Amino acid sequence: MSDVLAVADHRRGELRDVSFEIVRAGRELAADLGGDLHVAVIAGDVDGFADRLSLEGVDTVHTVDAGEEFNHDLYAGATAALFEELAPTALLMPNSVNGLDYAPAVANRLDLPLVADAVGLSYDDGLEATREMYGSKVATTVEVSEEPVAVTVRGGEWPAVEDAADVAVEPFDYEFDEATSGARVQGFEEVGAGDVDIADAEFLVSVGRGIEEEENLELIEELVEATGATLSSSRPIVDNGWLPKNRQVGQSGKQVTPDVYLAIGISGAVQHVAGMKGAETIIAINTDPNAPIFDIADYGIVGDLFDVVPALTEQFE
Amino acid sequence: MKILVTVKEVAEAADDFEIDGTDIGEQYLEYDLNEWDDYAVEAAVQLSEAYDDVETVSVTIGPERSEETIRMALAKGVDRAIRVWDDDVAAADLDVAAKTRLLSAVVAEEEPDLVLSGVQAADDGFGATGVSLADEIGFDWAAVVNHLDTDDDLSTAHVHRELEGGIEELTDVDLPAVLTIQTGLNEPRYASLRGIRQAQSKEIAEFGLGDLGLDADAVASPIERTAMYEPETESDATYFDGSADEQAAQLADVLRTKGVVSE
Ligand SMILES: Cc1cc2nc3c(=O)[nH]c(=O)nc-3n(C[C@H](O)[C@H](O)[C@H](O)COP(=O)(O)OP(=O)(O)OC[C@H]3O[C@@H](n4cnc5c(N)ncnc54)[C@H](O)[C@@H]3O)c2cc1C
């Protein structure tokens, strides 16, 4: 049999979106392979999660009732053990932050070739995956000449599977004692609270590394002032300490849904786009006509922000 | 204590580029120290400044050209460097497993207590080598670390792992360990003139596969890149042409029409 095993992701009692997307990726791949789709869910309220993961196209949900939250030793150990029991042709794991913390270990342990951060998958006489390179400026296809294979799947690339079905749930025994793990989770902390909640803003003026120097932020602040917008940014601006963390848009920052998102000197890296693609209208100013931000923009200016931004500010003064 | 830092020279594509076969044409690529590794280097150097008897060693898999990048790490305070390369490595398309084999051979040679690595490389974005290496060499690990404290006896690292959506996981990791470092962990220093001068005389040891007790099989990869293309754009953006003033005027109209700016 040429089965697929996909591992779900959850945090603090909630399945994360990528869990429903990886079911789609797994379902499509299992159809190409002519095998079954197995879904694994590890730690926490596994029975509750199994209910939610009983979805159209899933053949079996395997529950590993051990531990409360993500621990990479638990995830790596349980995934590898389940893999050995089921012997699937493809193992899919999410390219989430937790995926980054256990998937490479699983692939190494099982001696599987690893394709990371896939945005497309197909099978025809071998696995073919689509990935991006050079900050999403180009796409590539890679072929894997060995089986079985491990793949981590980028979030947001496959539509979530929503249709509930009646799926067999099988508990999988895996002994785990977190106290013996070399990495022990002590808790969680929320960061990025502050005076302004950029998630509430209707009009965000967002600045990226194209601004070059902290002093130059003044240009953007003048535009913000003249238009009554709210200021946000990509990650490097926060990493440099030029703006507080609560202004960061993206995967590890805030998710925003303004009416208008004006991205100035921002390339549009996938982790940034994850936070702002829900904006109603996206406008980008960038010197690089190939910047990936233009792929999702409604309006674009290929130009130098140091010329365009002052001219725009003038329009409102 | 010895800290090994993985340092990669990454390629960045010029604004206008052309694809040649399955890669961007060499003339359109510029090389630089991987952004994430810059933070890993800084973390290593800071630890060596905070504790007595810490040696920092960088390891790079890369051609002779990458010595420029390696000198940058040396100039920032890394004590010495290792560069792994030979004709077999050059001819291979290194996948995560191949990199893991090369780096674990270096670990066997150097016996570090801590390995610091960037979360991902900016060019191929696999984000997997550090954790794969940890598993291979039997170290504990933590991925996407954006805060690092160590116990006085350097037995445990207290780290924050940066999860999605502004949440951090607080985790204790026993040393020896591999930590993959996220940007923002610290403030990477600029190399001083003195550092740059000193870097010229620091050692960059070169290792081929044979020196590491490996042969060409170690870099064989079952993953082959078969095509590269510019992605089709999903949206068709309306572009504003003309001078900066003309572009700004058109954009201002859109903002007024959308009702987000009055006047
Ligand atoms: C686990 C993880 C989580 C992450 N989380 C986030 C996150 O939450 N948010 C986030 O933003 N990033 C995040 N990142 C980082 C992300 O991968 C990118 O590194 C980052 O978004 C790049 O920011 P940027 O677009 O400002 O900079 P760059 O990618 O350097 O882009 C700068 C852009 O400015 C343009 N430019 C330069 N000069 C000018 C000029 N004069 N006029 C106009 N344009 C100009 C350039 O053409 C370029 O496109 C994360 C990464 C990882 C690995």
Automatic annotation (TrEMBL), chain A:
Q: Please give the SUPFAM superfamilies that the UniProt record associates with this protein.
A: Adenine nucleotide alpha hydrolases-like, DHS-like NAD/FAD-binding domain
The UniProt record lists the keyword Metal-binding: no
InterPro entries, per this entry? DHS-like_NAD/FAD-binding_dom (IPR029035), ETF_a/b_N (IPR014730), ETF_a/FixB (IPR001308), ETF_alpha_N (IPR033947), ETF_asu_C (IPR014731), Rossmann-like_a/b/a_fold (IPR014729)
Record-annotated Electron transfer flavoprotein alpha/beta-subunit N-terminal domain positions: 4-185
SMART domains attached here?
A: ETF (SM00893)
Q: Which UniProt keywords apply?
A: Flavoprotein, Transport
The similarity comment for this entry is: Belongs to the ETF alpha-subunit/FixB family.
Query: Any idea what this protein is called?
Result: Electron transfer flavoprotein subunit alpha/FixB family protein
TrEMBL record, chain B:
Query: Could you tell me the keywords of this UniProt record?
Result: Electron transport, Transport
Query: Could you identify this protein by its name?
Result: Electron transfer flavoprotein subunit beta/FixA family protein
Q: Which SUPFAM superfamilies match?
A: Adenine nucleotide alpha hydrolases-like (SSF52402)
- Give every Electron transfer flavoprotein alpha/beta-subunit N-terminal domain span: 21-216
Family, as annotated: Belongs to the ETF beta-subunit/FixA family.
- Organism of derivation: Halobaculum lipolyticum
The record's annotation in InterPro entries points to: ETF_a/b_N (IPR014730), ETF_b (IPR012255), ETF_beta_N (IPR033948), Rossmann-like_a/b/a_fold (IPR014729)
